[in-house]
């Protein structure tokens, strides 16, 4: 079985009710559910939540909510891997055995079915644990600066002060959209950022962290521009 798991707990603090807050005309989570369904990759799309209202919205947009996430996996400190492991174990026990599972974040409105399919192709054809979305940093990380306790400036890597940007190695970061993984990798808690993982590159304009109200407004502007 190929399973999509969308983690969506109810306790968002910086943007209250973030997972079901209206984003460009739909609850935020609806965009992830629809992308998963349209991708054609999955035997089942489920939402893992501890919140009855999120569960109702998820069902309305076509996802299944076969269980309510236990409280011990719904606090601020629980990572993604334990949540996905719990969902896989539940499905393995109550339905079919999961072969591949894709964690798809509920706050990823820019995710596309094509990218999800690319991830599936990689993980089914290569001997890897995970395939997940990445994108490049907009500025060379080797030339990053910090503000000191005295209010002054210093470089993280001062040896690169005179290095041309084009001569520095390009750096990438997690795009925070989806993570395909073999079921055994999730169940054994294997680390995602490792040589056993393969990147699925995305263009920067389709990668948006949405952690603050300002992020939300900027993401809606960009999303509307892309749709038009």
TrEMBL record:
CDD domains: CMP-NeuAc_Synthase. One of its GO terms (molecular function) is nucleotidyltransferase activity. It comes from the Bacteria. It holds the Pfam family CTP_transf_3. Keywords: Nucleotidyltransferase, Transferase. Its EC number is 2.7.7.81. The keyword Nucleotidyltransferase applies. The keyword Nucleotidyltransferase applies. This is Pseudaminic acid cytidylyltransferase. It comes from Crenobacter oryzisoli.
């Amino acid at each position: 079985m190929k399973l999509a798991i969308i983690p969506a707990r109810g306790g968002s603090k910086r943007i209250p009710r973030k997972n079901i807050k209206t984003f460009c005309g739909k609850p935020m989570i609806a965009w992830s559910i629809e992308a998963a369904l349209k991708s054609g990759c999955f035997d089942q799309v489920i939402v893992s939540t501890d919140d009855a209202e999120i569960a109702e919205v998820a069902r309305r947009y076509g996802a299944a909510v076969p269980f309510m996430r236990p409280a011990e996996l719904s606090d601020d400190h629980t990572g993604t891997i334990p949540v996905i492991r719990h969902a896989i174990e539940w499905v393995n026990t109550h339905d079919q055995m999961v072969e591949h599972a894709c964690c798809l974040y509920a706050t990823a409105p820019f995710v596309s079915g094509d990218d999800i399919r690319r991830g599936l192709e990689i993980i089914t054809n290569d001997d890897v644990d995970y395939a997940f979305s990445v994108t490049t940093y907009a500025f060379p990380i080797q030339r990053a600066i910090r503000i000191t306790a005295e209010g002054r400036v210093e470089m993280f890597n001062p040896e690169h002060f005179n290095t041309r940007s084009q001569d520095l190695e390009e750096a990438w970061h997690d795009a925070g959209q989806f993570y395909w993984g073999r079921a055994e990798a999730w169940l054994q808690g294997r680390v995602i950022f490792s040589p056993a993982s393969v990147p699925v590159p995305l263009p920067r304009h389709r990668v948006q962290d949405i952690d603050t109200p300002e992020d939300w407004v900027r993401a809606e502007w960009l999303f509307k521009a892309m749709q038009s």
